[in-house]
Structures are given as structure tokens and as C-alpha cells.
Specification:
Length: 452
């Protein structure tokens, strides 16, 4: 009986994470909360910023120009993941990089609240916006690689899919929280008040998730895998060089996956956020604006985003039934991609209930694709350059994703939004599915590749 109790006790211990592991997971998850909160904050403010950052004579193109800096942030992200990942994440430590990245990320995020307007500073106003988003992108780019490595290097293989899905859900959690915050800020405000002040308040609130995440990271522990490398003196001198020479083809295929997936993500979740702020009508505006009230649109997005959280958690749970990360990702990608045109043509409706229902289904399926990505990437690359490789692959995908909004809006000036929107998502889906098909997992499933 005693042996049985001890055996059962050991089983319980193996099935539950200890406090050290929980703190590492939360340290990574918090960075994604910050990323989701900050990214969507900018998109919710986009229409209002376009009015005050550029001269009225530009009309519709003010919106295109205010969304162009998203691409600048997309350029900064892979640079940050390569430079900071190479010199800190894979040489000094995952924890050290995460502490540096959240400080820089928080400071530049909040600094947008201090931006001057075009009336106050002329062309300097949008120039500062572009520079800030680029610098912000550098620090944000370091988040995914170091955070994923820290969280998953100490997690048992059987739990990695579920834990990875939880870490990934941090972005959706931040998205949900910023929608609530924006709804509270603009409640009772006039459009003039939103243009003049509300967006500044919203950017200031990005300090809150940043500060909380910093506290968690200061008190967490370095990953056991990296500590072991330090003790044995096997830390790579030039991690990025090892990444290129040892995993070149896998990096390319993985970049195909993230490029397609993050383009899709920007063209859905981010684009919906832009639509949520579309209460300002430009002359000859080419996009069919939705007639929802601001509160109706934000409430619809809250529901859609909550459903997406259910999607990423469900995807991680279902994938846990198989030892493969790639096969579930391929199934989820096909389930999302095939009905894309139907989602767009039915969902982009003046009926808020239809909009919410259709895009909730699409969001659920899209989120499932993300669920196995952290586990797949962490197990695909050596511990000697894992932070650099994961960060570069994910944020390299964000490079093209950063252009998704303007690539939709520019052709839409001449062609139907629904047509452009559908075609671009299909092209991104083809790239993503091709990458999933071509990439290969480690065949020897008896050994844990996270230790290699």
C-alpha cells in the first residue's frame, strides 16, 4: 500500500509543473500579453492617428501611411531576434534577454503617447512614429525566441504541446485586455476627445502589462538546459553561424510557415482591429465601412478573440494526443484555409451577429494552427542557437506580415475588398502549407530533441 501511494505520488509530481517551471512559463506568456496588448492598441488608434499625423489633403492615403509603420516594426523584429538572440539569449541567457527586451519594449510602447501631431511638428510627427515603431520592433523581436526557449526547455515532452499553446495564447489575452481597456477609455467620449486624448491614454496603459511581466522575469529562473550548457562550457561563440550551417534548409521551410501564418494573422485579427476604429469617413473612402457603433464592434471583437483563445488551447490539447507537432499543424492549416473565401464573403456583413459568428469560427481555426508552433520550433533547433533560431524564424515571418494591412488597403482603392482580402489570404495559406509539408521533424521520438 505504501509503495502504491509513493508511486501514485510520483505520478502526480510528474503530471504537474513545479513553481520554477510555472514562473518560467508565466515569464514567457507575459511577454506575449504585452505584445498582443501593444500591437492591437496601435491598430485601434490607427484611424485617429491618421487624422492628426498627416495633412488632410492626403485623404484616404493617410490611413495607408499610418499603417505603413507596422511594416517598420516588422523589419525591426527579425533584426532584434538575430542581434539580441545571438549576443544575449544564446550566450548570456534566456532570462537576461527577456529582462532587457521587456524594458525596451515597454519604454518605446508608452513613448507613443508623447508623440506630437502634424499640426505641431509637421513631417517630424510621422517620422518619429516610424522610428519608435522600428525600435520597438527590435525589442519585441527578442521576445518570442528567448521566451519560448525559457518556457519549453524545462517542460516534460508530454506537456510541451499544451504549455506551448498556453504561452502562445498570451497574445490573444493581451488582445482581449486592450479591447476592454479601449472600451472603458472611450466610453462617453466624443470623436473629438478620442482623436485628441484617448489614444494617448491607451498607449500609456501599455506600461501596466510591461511592468507586471518585468517583475515576473526578475524573480524567475534560467532554463535548466542553458544552465547545463554554461556549466559544461558548451555555449556557442557565434550561435547565428551554427544556425545557418547546421539547420539552413529547416530555417527556410520554417520561415515559409511563419511568413504565411503571420501574414494571415495580420490580415484577420489586425485588420478587424482597424475596422473597429473606422468611425472616421474619408472622402471617397473605397472600403465598405461597417455601420456598427464603436461599442458594438469592440464587443464583437471581444467575443471573436475569446473564441480564438479557446481555439489555441483546444489545438494544444488535441495535438497532445500525438507525438507529432507537424501533422496537427497541417490539419489545422487545411481546416482554416479551404473555407477562407466563404468566411470573408459571409462574415464581412452589416449584421453584427453574422460578423461575430462567422469570424469567430475563422478565428478559432486560425488559432489552432498557432497552438503547436512553440513546441515544434523549440524541438527543431539545437539548444546552442535555439533562442536565435526561434526568434528569427517567427519574426522573419512577421516581416511580410507587417505589410499585410497596406497590401490589402492599396489594391482595395481600385478593386473589391472582399476579392483582394480572399486572394491574399489564399496565397499566404499556400506558402504556409507548403512549408509545413516540406519541413521534417526528428524521426527518433524516443530521445528528447530539446536536450540536443
Amino acid at each position: 500500500m505504501v509503495n502504491l501511494m509513493v508511486e501514485n505520488s510520483n505520478v502526480v509530481i510528474e503530471q504537474n509543473l513545479n513553481m520554477k517551471q510555472i514562473s518560467q512559463v508565466l515569464a514567457s506568456w507575459g511577454g506575449w500579453v504585452m505584445d498582443g496588448y501593444n500591437s492591437i492598441a496601435f491598430l485601434l488608434a490607427a484611424f485617429y492617428l491618421s487624422v492628426i499625423m498627416f495633412p488632410p489633403s492626403l485623404g484616404y492615403w493617410r490611413l495607408v501611411l499610418v499603417l505603413a509603420p507596422v511594416a517598420f516594426a516588422g523589419i525591426g523584429r527579425p533584426i532584434g531576434s538575430l542581434v539580441l538572440g545571438n549576443f544575449i539569449g544564446d550566450r548570456v541567457g534566456r532570462k537576461a534577454l527577456l529582462t532587457v527586451s521587456i524594458l525596451g519594449f515597454s519604454i518605446f510602447s508608452a513613448s507613443k503617447s508623447l508623440l506630437p501631431t502634424y499640426a505641431q511638428a509637421g513631417i517630424l510627427a510621422p517620422a518619429l512614429l516610424y522610428v519608435i515603431l522600428f525600435l520597438e520592433g527590435i525589442f519585441a523581436g527578442a521576445e518570442y525566441g528567448a521566451g519560448t526557449a525559457l518556457a519549453l526547455e524545462s517542460i516534460p515532452k508530454k506537456k510541451r504541446s499544451i504549455v506551448g499553446a498556453f504561452v502562445q495564447s498570451g497574445f490573444g489575452t493581451g488582445y482581449f485586455l486592450v479591447l476592454l481597456t479601449w472600451l472603458l477609455i472611450i466610453s462617453g467620449m466624443t470623436s473629438t476627445g478620442i482623436v485628441d486624448y484617448a489614444w494617448r491614454y491607451l498607449f500609456l496603459t501599455t506600461l501596466i502589462p510591461g511592468f507586471i511581466t518585468l517583475l515576473i522575469r526578475l524573480t524567475t529562473f534560467e532554463s535548466s538546459v542553458f544552465e547545463d550548457m554554461k556549466d559544461k562550457g558548451t555555449v556557442a561563440r557565434v550561435p547565428v553561424k551554427n544556425m545557418v550551417t547546421e539547420s539552413g534548409s529547416k530555417v527556410i521551410y520554417a520561415l515559409m510557415i511563419t511568413t504565411g501564418l503571420l501574414f494571415i494573422n495580420t490580415a484577420t485579427f489586425s485588420f478587424w482591429s482597424v475596422l473597429a476604429s473606422s468611425t472616421i469617413h474619408y472622402a471617397s473612402f473605397p472600403v465598405q465601412l461597417l455601420s456598427f457603433s464603436k461599442s458594438d464592434m469592440l464587443e464583437a471583437l471581444l467575443i471573436i478573440n475569446f473564441v480564438s483563445l479557446l481555439g489555441v488551447w483546444s489545438g494544444g490539447f488535441l495535438a497532445n494526443w500525438t507525438t507529432s507537432r507537424r501533422i496537427p499543424m497541417l490539419i489545422y492549416a487545411l481546416a482554416f484555409s479551404i473555407p477562407t473565401a466563404a468566411f470573408i464573403y459571409l462574415g464581412y456583413s452589416q449584421n453584427v451577429a453574422v460578423f461575430t459568428l462567422v469570424f469567430s469560427i475563422q478565428a478559432f481555426l486560425e488559432a489552432m494552427i498557432f497552438s503547436t508552433l512553440p513546441a515544434f520550433l523549440s524541438e527543431s533547433f539545437s539548444k546552442k542557437y535555439r533562442s536565435t533560431a526561434i526568434g528569427f524564424i517567427y519574426n522573419g515571418g512577421a516581416l511580410m506580415g507587417g505589410f499585410a494591412l497596406v497590401l490589402i488597403l492599396i489594391p482595395t482603392y481600385y478593386v473589391s475588398l472582399k476579392l483582394v482580402w480572399s486572394l491574399e489570404i489564399y496565397l499566404a495559406a499556400i506558402l504556409m502549407i507548403a512549408g509545413i509539408y516540406l519541413v521534417r521533424e526528428k524521426k527518433d521520438l524516443k530521445e528528447d530533441s530539446i536536450l540536443d
